[in-house]
UniProtKB/TrEMBL annotation:
UniProt remark on domains: The N-terminal region contains the highly conserved SGGXDS motif, predicted to be a P-loop motif involved in ATP binding.
UniProt-annotated binding residues for ATP: S37, G38, G39, A40, D41, S42
Organism for this UniProt entry: Microbacterium insulae
Domain tRNA(Ile)-lysidine synthase substrate-binding: 263-326
Keyword Nucleotidyltransferase: no
Keyword Coiled coil: yes
The name this protein goes by in its record: tRNA(Ile)-lysidine synthase
High-level lineage: Bacteria, Bacillati, Actinomycetota, Actinomycetes, Micrococcales
Length: 332
């Protein structure tokens, strides 16, 4: 049902509708956590959740993670928390220790999600709401395309995913960043402008400030929406492939000492796309490692281009052909 109250700003209504749809799947009586950075996206999300959660029989709480990476970060976190309390939300600030693995962006993201998950556990909450928008989705798809990371990265971010037993929801993936800013203005909220969002040393900032505007200028408007649609379609395809793998894999794998083996005949009988996914799935599920495209093709050649080649060293395991099977065993 749409908001039709006289005087309700269209941007506020759009954000509220998106949040209402996301909260529809949360059990009544639950607590939900809003990941509040203080930026326009998360602030608009917090305002919408403050309005919608009680009407859905839910309790909403805002959690602001202070990474401690910038001067004044504590003040920014306190200001965001104060705005959340003014919206009627329970609000708290938590500190996160940021490591170095994967670079600054990845390390901060890992620390942030760990802090949010810990805060959700103490409340306790069943869901965490994050303020990623359609623009964030478009940037994610472009970054994945530039890195050649394959269909998995081009799927972008999911609307709902599991975060160590808590559901992570992204209600605003269909909402533009301009809409969240307009919603904040309409509700008299003052977003925090993260200085990192203008630093060109970050690839995502370069995509946001340079690449997407050029694409819009040269190819016409609607690029961000097209990229988001591409992500959704690829996610649907991936879900279909996953179902096919689940149906197939139990019949073609056998456990061997220190590993697992897969039938050569069954792999050869499948299309290349499914064959490659099965190979990656086996390694990921058995050895908790990811294969690159080149590594996957190396293993596939043991199936379709067998010429007596020897074992292949892979992350966490070794693949070799033994008769009519490909064996994946732990590396010594």
């Amino acid at each position: 049902m749409e908001d039709r109250r006289p005087g309700l700003d269209p941007a506020v209504a759009e954000v509220r509708r998106a949040v209402r749809a996301a909260l529809a799947g949360v059990p009544e009586g639950s607590v939900v956590v809003i990941a509040l950075s203080g930026g326009a996206d998360s602030l608009a999300l917090a305002a919408a959740a403050a309005f919608e959660a009680p009407r859905a029989g839910l309790t909403a709480a805002a959690v602001t993670v202070d990474h401690g990476l910038q001067d004044g970060s504590a003040d920014a976190a306190a200001a965001a928390s104060a705005q959340a309390r003014a919206l009627g939300l329970d609000a708290r600030v938590v500190r996160a220790a940021v490591g170095t693995d994967g670079g600054p962006e990845a390390a901060a993201r890992t620390a942030r999600y760990a802090a949010l998950r810990a805060a959700a556990s103490t409340l306790p909450a069943t869901a965490i709401l994050a303020g990623h928008t359609l623009d964030d989705q478009a940037e994610t798809v472009l970054l994945g395309l530039a890195r050649g990371s394959g269909a998995a990265s081009l799927q972008g971010m999911a609307e709902s995913t599991d975060l160590d037993g808590v559901t992570l929801l992204r209600p605003l993936l269909g909402v533009r960043r301009a809409t969240t800013r307009a919603a904040c203005r309409a509700e008299g909220l003052e977003p925090w402008e993260d200085p990192h969002n203008t630093e060109s040393r970050f690839a995502r900032v370069r995509v946001r400030e340079s690449v997407l505007p050029v694409l819009e200028a040269e190819l016409g408007p609607g690029i961000a929406e097209a990229l988001a649609r591409t992500a959704a379609q690829l996610r649907e395809d991936a879900e279909a492939f996953d179902e096919m793998i689940d149906e197939t894999i139990e019949d073609i794998v056998e456990h061997v000492e220190a590993g697992i083996s897969v039938s050569v005949g069954a792999l050869a009988a499948n299309p290349a796309a499914l064959r490659h996914r099965i190979i990656r799935h086996v390694v990921a599920s058995e050895f908790h490692e990811s294969l690159t495209r080149a590594q996957t093709l190396q293993v596939a050649r043991l199936v379709i281009d067998w010429a007596g080649q020897g074992p292949i060293d892979l992350p966490g395991c070794r693949a070799r052909r033994v008769g009519g099977r490909i064996e994946f065993t732990a590396r010594p």
